[in-house]
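Fold it.
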Amino acid sequence: MAQPALTLDDLPLPRRVAIAELVGAALSITGELALLYAALAARGELAALDAGLGELAWAKGAEAAALESLARDLGCDAAQAAPAPRLETGAAGRGQVFTRAFERERTLEITYRELVALLAGHPLEGRLARLAAETAGHRARLRDLYWRYS
């Protein structure tokens, strides 16, 4: 049985390009979500909602750090990821912001699952699978907050 690739350089070029692009997209989305949750929590609408959103913002920050570490271990240049946009949530209604967050969480989860497929058999596959599972948990937490406070 062939030895699994240890870096992106060991993989065929098309897979390296796809992996690097997906890692960049995941970093961008994770940063965007951290900003979105922090901005929504800062509105100060309901203390329990703000606390829950603050926890999600912290969790997304930790996820971004784990993803940056994984990108380094893969040999990806995390600095090439598109910077997360500064989102203006002040004028948007809470429902609109939640809708945006749900969409981005689903996109992030799909991105992780694609990465897991591209890195099948790679030693880092398990770390990506954990990030996908954590993102599913974040989406479930977001749904719970939405149901409780909307």
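The mean pLDDT is 85.
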